[in-house]
Amino acid sequence: MYANRAYCVANGAGYIGYGENTWGLTACDGPGNNTKANPNVSFQGYNARGAAQFYLQDDGTIAPTAAGGSIPFAPEICLPALENMKKLYGDKIYGRFGFKDAFNLSIVNVDGTQGWFDNDYLGIDEGPIVIQIENYRNQFVWNLMKKSPYIKEGLKKAGFTGGWLN
Question: Which pLDDT belongs to residue 39?
Answer without folding.
Answer: 56
